[in-house]
Design brief:
It contains 5 helices and 2 strands. The protein is mostly helical. The protein has one domain.
């Protein structure tokens, strides 16, 4: 279910950013959609009780890292970092207020961050998700530092 929301949020970010010419938003939105598709495939496999569910997006990151001569775990690290940053880009990016109007250009006060208007439970859920993803990144970094070169 969360992967579906991730795909929808990525599509919204992609379309909204393309309309305003925001290249960073287009990249973040497309990465969010792609990660959502991979997570969805992995989630469906888990529901079908597959022992080691595959995530084709994560596998692609690992394969590219290996192709470039790096450790496969570095590809996993790149996937985790991209997943974390794209998940939180939509919350922290500046969004135009609906009631804003302009004569020449928008003022800084015409923008807000979604984190400013989120409820406390929603912030707590997002914070817990960030903590889980951060723990995964730190475990991967620990393994890379303490078990060098498993290729």
């Amino acid at each position: 279910m969360l992967s579906g929301l991730q795909i929808i949020a990525g599509a919204g970010l992609l379309v909204g950013s393309a309309a305003t010419g925001n290249v960073i938003g287009v990249v973040a939105g497309s990465a969010l959609m792609i990660n959502g598709v991979g997570s969805g495939i992995e989630g469906i496999s888990k529901l079908r009780e597959v022992q080691n569910p595959a995530n084709p997006v994560r596998d692609a990151y690992e394969d590219v890292a290996e192709f470039l001569g790096f450790d496969q775990r570095l590809g996993l690290l790149a996937y985790q970092v991209v997943d974390l940053t794209t998940s939180y880009y939509g919350i922290f990016k500046l969004t135009l207020k609906p009631e804003a109007w302009r004569l020449f250009k928008y003022l800084p006060t015409d923008h807000y961050r979604k984190v400013q208007v989120m409820s406390k439970p929603a912030l707590a859920i997002n914070g817990a998700g960030a903590a889980v993803k951060g723990a995964g990144i730190s475990m991967n970094l620990y393994q890379i530092q303490n078990n060098p070169s498993q290729n």
